[in-house]
Amino acid sequence: xxxxxxxxxxxxxxxxxxxxxxxxxxxxxxxxxxxxxxxxxxxxxxxxxxxxxxxxxxxxxxxxxxxxxxxxxxxxxxxxxxxxxxxxxxxxxxxxxxxxxxxxxxxxxxxxxxxxxxxxxxxxxxxxxxxxxxxxxxxxxxxxxxxxxxxxxxxxxxxxxxxxxxxxxxxxxxxxxxxxxxxxxxxxxxxxxxxxxxxxxxxxxxxxxxxxxxxxxxxxxxxxxxxxxxxxxxxxxxxxxxxxxxxxxxxxxxxxxxxxxxxxxxxxxxxxxxxxxxxxxxxxxxxxxxxxxxxxxxxxxxxx
Length: 304
Prior knowledge:
Elements: H1 3-13, E1 26-30, E2 33-37, E3 44-46, H2 51-57, E4 64-66, E5 90-92, H3 100-105, E6 110-112, H4 120-127, E7 132-133, H5 145-155, H6 159-179, E8 187-192, E9 200-201, H7 210-214, E10 218-219, E11 226-227, H8 232-237, E12 241-245, H9 249-256, H10 259-262, E13 269-271, H11 274-282, H12 288-303
Parallel strand pairs: 3-4, 3-6, 4-5, 6-7, 8-10, 8-12, 12-13
Antiparallel strand pairs: 1-2, 9-11
């Protein structure tokens, strides 16, 4: 093979996501261009809200984790805690924006910020510290879970391993459909565990409801993300099962104290509790198996 043909083949091969170049590097595309990671990283900062889960799923223990909610040790929830293996990562916060100076002091060799709300300026500042992976597209936070997981798999040079994890998660959800034929044709709504300005909140964009469809349910279509007071009884009453991502008994009690919600037959309500609510919110390769294991029995009791 000529040198020119070999170069062309290499260039074409590099177009495949996660392809490792001849020098051992990988290039990851994202919203602000491309980032080249020269070798498997060993000091990774998880700068986004949910990035750590996908790193830990691949056995990559970050030196810093960004806390989201739940007040869990080191910002890591129970489904991922064992994967720390005794490590005690620095806990970062996005409450006042990305802590660029603190991250710099950690001397990372990779910054994963796929769920950190990066803008161009912050991305540039982080890139001056270490190779940085931003969100894949226009969703600054909470892009579709497969997109985030795929980018992280590429960034740590574990593309094929991550694709296997993604496939396994999908298989767990479709397995629920096979084992629960009674879910077919049942209409479901995934809802926040608290009211917002006297309205019921439908949880997130359409991709967040996809796991319900995979399990055989039908997601009830709503006009918008907030169901106003005068339509709560109508919209919620059309569902066979209402999945409330409540984090406490107090949140459950507050919902049931609302006359419009209390008027719906009690068996249709599923209240998650804190860990299952967190697992649904994190939507990761580690948290979704928890959802696939714990939610179906609760749904089965609701739909009969």
